[in-house]
Structure formats: structure tokens, C-alpha cells
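Note to self: keep these together.
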Amino acid sequence: MDTINIIFAVLSIGFGCFGWLAPRYTLGALDLHMGKTTMGISEIRASVGCLFVGMGLGALILGTPEAYMMLGFCWCGAAAGRLTSVIFDGQSQKKWIYFIVEAVVGVPAVIFNL
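Structure:
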């Protein structure tokens, strides 16, 4: 159980590092584009980057089942938002892939730590 929790936390940190340290790459991977200001880059660094780094580090530092469960709830929240987009905004292969990744990390992290 501890190994799986650590893997989920490290995955969160790893994915977050892309948004934090490679925001232009992340913009492209998410089919987003730069606007007239740098707010898009700032948002990627914050919400797609450091938010996930902070979640993963927090779970590792606290090391409790509740911390890892909260990490799972965050990933499930992202999956719920992605599924909402599929339903209301239209489907794409990329949306489904990201939804699956988010659900595969989130759901087990919640279930394993109940």
C-alpha cells in the first residue's frame, strides 16, 4: 500500500513539473495557445504545475492515508472536470486519454486509503 501511495504522489509531482518547468510544452500538449499576455503561462505553471507538485509533496510529507486519499480526491476532481468537458464541450481522443490517466490515479488513491 505504501509503495502505491508513493507512486501516485511521485506521478503527481512528475506531471506537475511539466506544467511548472515546461509551460510552453504543456500548453502544446493540452492544445492551448499563448494569448497577448503571459497569464496563460502563469496559469499553467500554477494550476497544471505547482498545484500538482504541492499535492504530491504534501502527501509524501504527511504520509498519512488521509493525505494520500486527498491526493486521490484531487485527481478525481480533475477527472470529473474532464468528463464534464467531454459531455458538454465535445469528445476528443486527447480528452479521453487525460480522463483515463486522471481516473487511474485518483480512484485507486481514494479506494486504497479508505
